[in-house]
Amino acid sequence: MWFRRRKRRSLESADRFPSAPPDVPLLEVDSAQTSFVTDRGTVRAVDGVTFSLERGRTLGIVGESGCGKTVLSRSVMGLLPKHNVVRSGSVRFEGQEIGNWAPDQMRPLWGTQMAMVFQDPMTSLNPVMSIGNQITEPLLYHFDISSGYARELAVALLQSVGIPEPDRRLRQFPHELSGGMRQRVMIAIAIACGPKLLFADEPTTSLDVTVQAQILDLLQTQQRERYMAMILVTHDLGVVAGRTDDIAVMYAGRIVEKAPTRVLFSQPRMPYTEALLASIPKLGDAAHSRLATIPGRPPNLIHPPQGCKFSPRCAYVQDKCRVEEPPLRPGPEGKHEFACWFPVGTPEGRAAFESNKKAGVAAVEARLGGETVPVEGVS
Amino acid sequence: MAGSGTAHLRPRDETLLRLENIVVEFPTRGRGTVHAVSDVSLDIKRGETLGLVGESGCGKSTTGRAALQLPKPTSGHVWFDGTDLTTLRRSSLRRARPQLQMIFQDPISSLNPRRRVKDIVSEGLDIWSVGDKLDRAKKVRSLLDEVGIDADAAVDRHPHEFSGGQCQRISIARAIATEPKLIICDEPVSALDVSVQAQILNLLEQLKSRYGLTVIFIAHDLAVVKNVSDIVAVMYLGKLCEIGPPDQLFQSPVHPYTAALLSAIPVPDPESKPQQLGGVGGEVPSPLNPPSGCRFRTRCPRAAERCAEEEPKIREMRPGHYVACHFPLEVDDVGVTAPSSDGAGS
């Protein structure tokens, strides 16, 4: 093989990375910060994120473009650019701190412990390498097996991700496959070495709905069969609704709400989550029903607003919100965490909303699907 | 699905735009012909919004562009306001163009990055010398106000200084500048975030009622299409499958493909588990060599021998609700049982 092999080990001794005791979560991220140094200033893409993930669980990370969801998953994987990046905080995997590891230290982990399925299967597969070589590459790199055996494993992998005629596909190149098939190949590569944690970063955004449903089903069955933990990063609340145990909503580099999926959809506490849910057109609604909107747009991450970062667009905003940033803390229900001074559905929240309604705050109008077109300033 | 026919067309004098048997084919170098749109007929009344949905490569954008003669369809007729656009010479077509405007998918790349906002919005007005310079400048300002852009701050800026949602507002202002009768929106919100998407959809509805616009709304997101449309047409691989009023079509689809599309949409509600029933496997076949007979038959759970031999014709299943399928899904209220094998209309 033309690529460099690691010190080989047999398939059986694959699990060389020490497992932590079962009561320690698989992944713990604690006040992680990732900033990019640019000519215009420092972009705080991930600004103090804390969460943990148990083995075999699925977490959805949801947010609009620029909220830091992709940077967060890449920070955990250690896939950030070499230069102009400032990181702090801790990332513990199997109880071990990996947040400050160099790529050389991370390399044994990629594939065998954690792996990623990227958004665009066309650009993330190597166009000049056959499908077979791309799938066997991690197998031969990590394990002491013959290339013949690796090929057999590759056939089995392609079969398990639902690719017909795997023998023939192994000799083909990415351009000969459709988008859905390419994404299946990406998944096969990601799960080839049996990772414990799978990141799927917008895995279906470039696919059609019928194919999207197939790929999401495939990810779900693989995740269950292999007892992987999975982090599903997406902008589409519909994608995570039926397929994750918990959801974290991100806004301007922070997690603003985190809850078990059902709870988040039925009782959103953070006004941003509520507004996001309300602004999605739903098939159940009658035609021409007016949509609730969120005025303005996500904040500039070089000069974020003071206080709560959602305050300029919020229908519940009070003076306190513009000064003091609310921490992410659990509510009375325990597992439901949110960062808001005047949470939706609480007496304080209702009072804040009513007083804003009386004062004619634009965000309330928009939230109720008002008729006015708010005039936007230019930054 | 995926049939042809004109049973669903309404009388010509009631419609603003009427596409008759549109065929669009693109030659390739040595690989045959791409059958992008094959015998599609559609019509649209004044003030109506027609939603055109389907997966990528189904010919929905090509159909929309064929209406604007961009490019001219290979065969078929486009009747707009009583004239057949396909027979017009270049100069008369040019005179008709201000009536037909388009809004594109990618708001940032559809605006010329080297021009200022005021020049972009007033280009159509400049070309047709509407009023004098001062009038046009005034008009540009009022257009920008109308789409929710602060005119004072915006007129002298370039597109890169605006966000995606703002750029889409600017291209909407550009499209309505010449006071068109028909606007074709080709995936106008698919590049935008959800919170911004809702703003743009509400804006389009508002402008539509204010100017009495007729709109063709092309999108792959069924919920978005349902929200804006008065009538919805579902396309698959260059053919029309089903056409009908949005509430009915999404509530009880008749075509197996529409049902499959609906069941594949991820619903933002954890209580509704993804349905296995009605979903389809496989992927869209190549338009270079589409299947014989019904084009959906290779993925259709109800396909039979007849579907390979005979192309289904469009027929009425319920008032105003048409389908092109030999074995449509059950429709109780008109007494058709599933699978129905009557070939009414064919």
Q: Layout of SSEs?
A:
The complex is a heterodimer of chains A (379) and B (346).
Chain A: E1 27-38, E2 41-53, E3 58-62, H1 69-77, E4 85-93, E5 96-97, H2 103-106, E6 114-117, H3 121-124, H4 131-142, H5 147-160, H6 166-170, H7 179-191, E7 197-201, H8 209-225, E8 229-234, H9 237-241, E9 246-251, E10 254-260, H10 261-266, H11 271-279, H12 319-323, E11 329-330, E12 337-338, H13 347-359, H14 362-367
Chain B: E1 15-27, E2 33-45, E3 49-53, H1 60-67, E4 75-80, E5 83-84, H2 90-96, E6 100-103, H3 117-127, H4 133-146, H5 151-154, H6 164-176, E7 182-186, H7 194-211, E8 214-219, H8 222-228, E9 231-236, E10 239-244, H9 246-251, H10 256-264, H11 305-309, E11 315-318, E12 321-323
Parallel strand pairs in B: 3-8, 3-9, 6-7, 7-8
Antiparallel strand pairs in B: 1-2, 1-4, 4-5, 9-10, 10-12, 11-12
Notes on the structure:
The complex is a heterodimer of chains A (379) and B (346). Chain A has 379 residues and is α/β, with parallel strands linked by helices. Chain A has 14 helices and twelve strands. In chain A, the strands form two sheets. Chain A has an eight-stranded mixed beta sheet with strand order 6-7-8-3-9-10-12-11. In chain A, strands 2-1-4-5 form a four-stranded antiparallel beta sheet. Chain B is globular, with a radius of gyration of 21 Å. Chain B starts with 14 loop residues before the first strand and ends in a 23-residue tail after the last strand. In chain B, 29% of the residues lie in helices and 21% in strands. In chain B, the strands form two sheets. Chain B has an eight-stranded mixed beta sheet with strand order 6-7-8-3-9-10-12-11, sandwiched between helices. In chain B, strands 2-1-4-5 form a four-stranded antiparallel beta sheet. The chains are: A alpha/beta (379), B alpha/beta (346). Chains A and B meet through α8, α9, α10 and α11 of A and α6, α7, α8, α9 and α10 of B.
